[in-house]
Every structure is written in structure tokens, then in C-alpha cells.
Amino acid sequence: MQRRIAALVLAPLLLTAGCGPIEGTSGQPSTPSLPASSAPIATASSPPGSTVPSGSQAEAAPCRTIELKISVQGAPGGGAAGSQYNWLVFTNVSARTCSLYGYPGVARLAGPAGPQVNDPLNHMAATTPARVVLAPQAAAHAVIQEGHPAAFEPACHAVDIAGLRVYPPDETAAVFVPFTERACSAKGVNGGFVAPIEAGLGE
Fold it and tell me: Which long-range contacts (CB under 8 A, 24 or more apart) does 24-30 make?
């Protein structure tokens, strides 16, 4: 009888112990983010011989600017009627697995030290961000969309740019990425858009 009473007393305590809140990593502050515990996770394609350890997706710390090589390449297909597309490519050059989530900050520059041309690119809101886990030497990309400057003249005042100033998500250190093109210099005219970072370099 005493054993039966003890079991009845302990049962509610055990049930209560399993109902506490589950703490997760807070969301990224500079992007319209989801908490890390609920954000979708995508693993970037890894180069041969490179793997993402099991269970590391949820724990991978954000990639720092110094850990990334950032470059620009043409998007598959190049563009559509009235628009041109490029990829901003982020390669993890560090020895650890890290993650990226959300939108990079992107602005056009007339030279490595500026000045800035037009406004920074706007966020492409149609795509939902997902947390991208990068193994060492793996890459991810963000789509850049711009209109053809000639279609916006005479208000555009097109000029040559020398590159892009890029901030990885939630980083305060930027890098200059060489990239030459014609862009509208008039603020608010053909400002362009950048999408959230996506895993891999596939179409």
C-alpha cells in the first residue's frame, strides 16, 4: 500500500517536470527573422570530402565577415525581360562550420572607398529566409535583381560602378566586392533588390 501511494504522488511531479519551456537561440536582429528553434534549416552543398557533423545545423554559430569569401557571378539564365540577375556568392573559407540567415546588406560603390551610388538594395520580400549551414569551403548565394538602366532614362543618370559593399547578415564589418556595371545614380530610381541567402549554387 505504501509503494502504491508513493507512485501516485510521484506521477504528477514527473509529468510537471516534462512541461517546462524549451529555450532556443534568439532570432537574428537585423533581418525579419524567425527564432532559431523554428527557422527552416538548409545545408549548403559541401565540396568533396567535406561534411557537416550530425547535429551541428542547429548549433552552428553565425559566419563572421572574416570567415567568408564574397564574390559576384552571373545568375543562371542571366535575366528576364527588363531585368538582370546576378548571384552574390558566400564561401566559407574558415576551418569551422558556420551559418547564415537572412539578407545581406548591399550597396553599389563608385570605387573601393566609395562614394556610394544610389540607395542600398531593397529586400526581396517574396522569398522566405532559411538558415543556411556552411561546412568549410561550402558556398551559398543571394540573388540580386536590377532593371536595365537604359529603361529608366532620362531619370536614371547611369554611371559606371566599380563594385559592391557587402555586409553578411548581422555583421557590422563589410567587404568591397569588385563588380563593374552601369547603374542608376539618381536616388530611388531602379534601386534593385537582394534576396535572402540560399544554400548551394544550384539553380
Answer: 25/58, 28/62, 28/101, 28/102, 28/169, 28/170, 29/170, 30/102, 30/169, 30/170
DSSP β-bridge partners for residue 144: 86, 194
Assess contact for 26 and 35: CB atoms under 8 A. Answer: yes
Per-residue pLDDT tens digits for 78-127: 666 678 999 999 999 999 999 999 999 999 999 999 899 999 999 998 88
- The string of pLDDT tens digits covering residues 32-62 is 333 333 445 555 544 433 344 444 455 789 9
CA–CA distance, 180 with 182 (Å, rounded to integer): 7
| Alpha-carbon span 169 to 110, nearest angstrom | 23
Sheet of 41-43: strand order equals 41-43, 131-134, 98-100
